[in-house]
Design goal:
- This protein is mainly α and 479 residues long.
- Helix content is 73%, strand content 0%.
- The chain is built from 23 helices and no strands.
- Helix 3 packs parallel to helix 17 and helix 14 runs antiparallel to helix 16.
- It is a multi-pass membrane protein.
Length: 479
């Protein structure tokens, strides 16, 4: 068999494999404690996962199949539960982000910002990667939304990749900077308690159910060492996985001169750039002050409302800087996301995810382990549980009270263990559907599902080890 024939055979085998797994789960005897809807949703979720990774057909087509099958096989009770996902707020947020990105690109504001950053702080591609690590950590303190931070950073990265002539899907540097955008967003989030609502919820569980008084600074000081250690090791691993030494050799040899010349050629800021900058700064201000707007103004503008407002301003005649035709909106990604959220919600709502976690804990036999092994196991489960749960809030609601209860039962300090496990809630970095941030970066086209899965699993393992380390050595000094 020739190489071409083998290559053509792979998609067919992938589809056959996905269908076999689907029917194997769907037709197996119903496990005790699992609902029929949960069995059907888990079968569809597994089928979709195989198809998204193997990509025998475009991923948006798999999502269309999923949305069609969810109500047909009874995985959801109502058709609207599958079809309405295209109207989710995240879809609007993604559309708005693409419009904002287009505005920054068309006005040359994004290019100007990228050129300033690269000429002043990043003389090499590796330095560029480091710059965006710092940007992610800094923004985590001021913008209490993981998606909002990704929406601010991604447009700037896209312009830099354009400067470096990095081709989507082919450039290792492009893959790396986007994948590290996903990961550093999560690592930085784990440091700042207010960087995602799930962490605030987790702290509420800890203080309420243990009588502790853990606060903002205890969270910050407790989490920072694990985040920095994970960031550094994952950064080095990424450089090895996606080596780009030869890829940018010709570009970087005269990069500084070329970039400075491009910056000079832009001249002073144009009117459109100033308009785009005002819209960009307004967006940043509204996202950064989301937790205080109710007290200041008597009302609150949500992350999604802010994004749609920014989109409107970018498109309004006389105020905006682009037309609708100039907005580069990737509708295939919208359809893919709709399917991903539909099947993810079906698994959560049917109880399939909760059943899987419960069986995993019982299978492991936590009550028969030493306290140290229990702690490490729970930390790993918390981090890797996002492979089943697509919602940080759902994971927090199920796992953190369970960790607290189990710790009390076994005589383990519940505050220390639950707090360290809570740091791992932010690690949603292995597949596009696992967070809105993943979906936004995935939509750039620079990496595929397999890239994120491989790098994400490695970084989750590193993060789990880092969390285990601070549990045994550091956390007792800050609580």
């Amino acid at each position: 068999m020739s190489d071409t024939q083998k290559k053509n055979l792979v998609p067919i085998l992938s589809i056959i494999g996905a269908v076999i797994v689907f029917f194997a789960i769907l037709l197996m005897p119903l496990p005790q404690g699992m609902s029929v809807a949960a069995q059907k949703s888990l079968a569809l979720f597994t089928f979709a996962l195989i198809m998204w990774i193997a990509k025998p057909i475009p991923i948006y087509q798999t999502s269309i199949i999923i949305i069609l099958l969810l109500p047909l096989i009874g995985a959801v009770k109502k058709q609207s539960q599958a079809f309405e996902t295209l109207g989710y707020s995240i879809i609007w947020l993604m559309v708005a982000a693409f419009v904002l990105t287009s505005a920054m690109s068309a006005s040359n504001l994004g290019k100007r910002i990228a050129l300033i950053l690269t000429t002043k702080f990043s003389k090499t591609p590796t330095q560029t990667l480091i710059v965006f690590v710092f940007i992610n950590y800094i923004l985590a303190f001021f913008v209490p939304s993981t998606t909002a931070r990704a929406s601010l950073i991604a447009p700037i990265i896209l312009v830099i990749l354009e400067v470096y002539k990095a081709v989507p899907g082919k450039s290792n540097f492009g893959k790396l900077i986007m994948l590290q955008g996903v990961q550093n967003n999560a690592f930085a989030t784990s440091v700042v308690m207010t960087a995602t609502s799930a962490q605030v919820l987790a702290l509420g569980f800890i203080n309420e159910q243990t009588g502790a008084s853990v606060g903002y600074m205890s969270w910050l000081l407790g989490s920072l060492p694990q985040a920095l250690l994970t960031t550094i090791i994952a950064f080095i691993v990424g450089l090895k996985l996606y080596s780009h030494k030869n890829e940018l050799g010709d570009v970087m040899s005269n990069a500084t001169i070329s970039l400075k010349k491009q910056l000079a050629d832009l001249g002073p800021m144009s009117l459109n750039e100033k308009k785009a900058l005002v819209i960009f700064m307004l967006t940043l201000f509204l996202w950064a002050t989301g937790d205080y707007q109710q007290a200041w103004f008597g009302f609150k503008i949500s992350t999604e409302q802010t994004a749609v407002l920014s989109m409107l301003l970018c498109l309004l005649p006389g105020i905006g800087v682009i037309t609708w035709k100039q907005a580069n909106i990737k509708w295939d990604l919208m359809v893919f996301s709709a399917g991903a959220y539909a099947v993810g919600n079906a698994v959560d709502n049917s109880g399939g995810a909760a059943w899987a976690i419960d069986k995993l804990i019982n299978f492991i036999g936590l009550d028969k382990m030493s306290h140290s092994l229990v702690a490490v196991t729970l930390i790993f489960i918390t981090v890797f549980s996002h492979l089943i749960f697509t919602s940080k809030t759902v994971r927090t609601t199920i796992l953190i009270p369970a960790v607290i209860a189990l710790s009390k039962q076994l005589g383990i300090d519940p505050v220390a263990l639950a707090l360290v496990c809570s740091f791992g809630i932010a690690y949603t970095i292995t597949l596009p559907p696992h967070s809105k941030v993943n979906t936004l970066y995935f939509g750039t086209g620079y990496f595929d599902v397999k890239d994120e899965l491989v790098y994400g699993l490695i970084s989750c393992f590193i993060g789990s080890c880092s969390l285990s380390l601070i549990y045994f050595t550091w956390i007792k000094f800050v609580i």
